[in-house]
Write a structure and sequence with these properties.
By secondary structure, the protein is an alpha/beta fold. It has a single domain (14-284), classed as Ribonuclease H-like superfamily/Ribonuclease H (Nucleotidyltransferase, domain 5), CATH 3.30.420. The chain is built from twelve helices and six strands. Strands 1, 2, 3, 4, 5 and 6 form a six-stranded mixed sheet that branches. Strand 3 and strand 4 form a beta hairpin. The longest helix is centred in the last third of the chain and has 25 residues, at 219-243. The protein is globular and about 65 Å long.
Length: 301
Amino acid sequence: MLHRIIAQQLVRRKGVVVGSQSVRYLVFDVESVADGNLVSKLRYPDELPEPREAIELYRKELLEQQGTDFIPYTFQVPVSVVIAKVSEDLRLLDLVALDEPAFRPHVITDHFWRGWEAYHRPTWVTFNGRSFDLPLLELAAFRFGLSAPGWFDIQAKGYQQRRNRYNTDAHLDLHDLLTNFGATRFHGGLNLAANLLGKPGKMDVQGHMVQDLYHAGQLAAINDYCRCDVLDTYFVFLRTCVLIGKLTLAREQELIGQTREWLVQRRDSSAAFASYLDKWGDWANPWESAAAAGQQTAASS
């Protein structure tokens, strides 16, 4: 019995192999839309407007009251979850959209939680996922009657539970880390963080457009947008690893170059990858610039 337990623990640490590398991190992003029937029933029980009309009424109210028309996640369901599988040495192994091309919310949610278990519970990596992405997928599991006992490990000590805010081995929220767990505000979000690294950030599609794209039947465009957000998050993850001393700057630059080549090889099969490459930018390395300037000064003296 003891040998079996030790073997299971070793398998969990090793992870599931993709190619020649095991998956250690799952970098992901979620796009979601409002459930019009739920909005109609709870927000306008007397009138019971049609689902799409109810959504538009609620968006208008929110815009007037709060300056944003984004409906709270509790009224939403996931329509896109894109996950980057990353190895222990931080190499991008694969990038997938769940339940493609059907993109059914209940199947997406099931694949999300079952996949995490199948890969032996790697570390989730998000940008501000603690306040939106993970709560939405937890509530989606509640809605669709799914179990995730490995995530809701409520029998563990509080600080060891995977949902504990400071358990970065279970979930590394890059926004939390960069703001010292909410001590400061990160104005500009993922878009700013990506642009600091020369990466595209927000392009043709932005988050507030997802609901309208969904009504227009453009699920592929939503998933392409989500793919690009995951790529941005991955590159921000790499730089964060430099920041905390897990990765050298030279190695980060090697990984970025390898990832660019990975995208180039798949460019023709993905509109998202092609668009991302078209707007790709390289980080301006001030250390190289300073060294070059020093060499020019020395040569002219």
